[in-house]
Amino acid sequence: MNNFEFKNPTKIIFGKEAIKKLENEIPNDAKVLLLYGGGSIKKNGVYEQVKTALSNFNVVEFGGIPANPEYDTLIKALTLIKDEKITYLLAVGGGSVIDGTKFLSAAALFNGATPWDILTQKIRTEKGMPFGTVLTLPATGSEMNSGAVITRAETKEKLAMGGPGLFPEFSILDPQVIASIPRRQLANGLTDAFTHVLEQYMTYPVGALLQDRFAESILHTLLEVAPKVLKNPSNYQAAANFMWSCTMALNGLIQKGVPNDWAVHAMGHELTALFGIDHARTLAIIVPSHYKYNFEAKKEKLAQYAERVWQITEGSIDDKAYAAIEKTVNFFHELGIDTKLSDYTIDYQGTAEEIAKRFTDRGWLALGEHQDITPEKVEKIVKMAY
Q1: Which residues, at least 6 apart from 319, have a Cβ–Cβ distance to it below 8 Å?
Q2: What does the pLDDT look like over 279-322, one tens digit per residue?
Q3: Domain-embedded: residue 5
Q4: Is residue 54 part of a domain?
Q5: Where are the alpha helices (DSSP H) in the chain?
Q6: How many domains are there within the chain?
Q7: What is the CA radius of gyration of the chain?
Q8: Which of 122, 267, 287, 331 is the most exposed place for a label (fewest CB within 10 A)?
Q9: Phi and psi at residue 385, to the nearest 5°
Q10: Tell me: the pLDDT tens digits for 50-62?
Q11: CATH code, domain carrying 235
Q12: If you ran DSSP here, which 8-state letter would residue 149 be given?
């Protein structure tokens, strides 16, 4: 097992009617900016619950944060923060709203030339404006980590940011909110969380026995609850296990002491930036090709995954590893997630070359757990995903 340090300061408030506890978590003298997305919270009762809990606070609202948090939209919110002298941020939504709020937390205290520098120059945020979250869509784990990804339509870019100053102070998780989530978004959430675990698990063995089993337990749980959640989102036990699995998939715990990949996300982000494809679906596009291209480097872990998660015990290491890739693809298909770029756009020619060029221009010359995924290899992997 590799050396590591681990600290996660986010307080989790989990369970039925948890939104009522919101008023106890924000300073009494705070001026709060309530941030949300397209308005679904006003249809499913969450908005009313939040407003009731905040009835004794000075609250300003900003809605309309899109599914891929857009820089230009967030800049409007940043202007509101400064004009209204906001002191506390509250994200009510899924990963996109929470990621957008993290950007605002950093940008509100940023003294550089332009807030976009935070992303292009990979500036770590050591201290941001304090914020909390009310999660409405399990998927990204953003409610319990310090990372975010922001999109800029003007330049067709999707870039990551983070730092210890961007952990939510608290996150409220009420599994009852899942009942109103459309099937497409539930499938995205399941795919997103599943792939988050794979990015931290599907590398090479380092003797981190407990970490491996943490990761495998999350994968097992997602596989078990997926059909139940899709069939009946009102199934509280299934919803609760789904929500907590998504949080645990990316709160920092399972990545400690083990190598991490994240090349799938790097490539997937570009597909979202170029074509507007849902984040989770871009991951499902890249995963099979990435694992097949890097088969020799990953086959030990792939075979372990085959045995422990898919109960594939027959055949050689290679046989089991290949079978595990196919099982993963089939799982995505069962969720209704297509796994080829050509399933999403007819304009895919030249995409691999464009992404490879972007990585070269940014200096992203060594991705993956071995730091050996070059732009040339990225081009081949993306072409395999056509």
Answers
A1: none
A2: 999 999 999 999 999 999 999 999 999 999 999 999 999 999 99
A3: no
A4: yes
A5: 46-53, 71-84, 95-107, 117-120, 183-201, 209-231, 236-249, 263-275, 279-293, 295-308, 317-334, 351-362, 375-384
A6: 2
A7: 20
A8: 122
A9: -90, -5
A10: 999 999 999 999 9
A11: 1.20.1090.10
A12: E
